[in-house]
Design goal:
With about 230 residues, this protein is mainly α. It folds into 2 domains: about 120 residues, Orthogonal Bundle (Cytochrome Bc1 Complex, Chain D, domain 2); about 90 residues, Orthogonal Bundle (Cytochrome Bc1 Complex, Chain D, domain 2), CATH 1.10.760. About 50% of the residues lie in helices and about 0% in strands. It has 12 helices and no strands. The longest helix has 16 residues. The two termini are about 35 Å apart.
Amino acid sequence: MKQFSGCRWLLATLSLAITASFPVIAATADGKSIYNRFCIYCHGEKGEGDGPAGSLSGVDTGDLSNGAYMSQLSDQELYDRIAWGEEKFPYLQMPGWRSSLSDGEIRALVKYVRTLAVDKGLLTIPSPKEREQKFRTDPLERGRIYYLHYCSGCHGKSGHGDGEAAKNMTTRPVALSNPGIAATITPESVNDYLTASKQRKETRNMPVFEDDFKDKVDEIVLYIKMLAKTK
């Protein structure tokens, strides 16, 4: 069984809790009731990204009420984001709901989400295409997203060892933003530590990550080095 760390573990737990609480949604349920069951916890009542679980995510929860931003997404693009979540759009850090919602329910949800968008003036944040382009072309941006996905729940968004999951730990996670510590971190040292800790489960301080985690280590380390420089 795969294990998760930090906010990924918290989000996964929240997702399971929501699904378990509402295992079946009537086919006639409207988009608002679906939104209130699956989306409101992060995106908030008005879609402004201020839900009680939104702070668990390292990546900012999307503001569905921003008309200028939402107008740049087609209905199919919204559908795909709801259905697949971070599996296809890793820079979003949200679960995909295709296993919990039917095609018709996702389409009803898309229609309801459209009603949340209001005019907030000209777009002052990166557009959907700009966000995706930056993620695809900038290794540091990918490192930031991966760090927030995998590491910030324990090590903190700024690397101070004060992540949300750290509150329940007896040993404080390492402050990766400490220049002295960051200087010792390399992709090889991270992979060696994870491999050794996986073999000695009884003394492991970090969870076992997905099989593709090693493909992301180089960029995560790049971002950690940046955190230390900007401390």
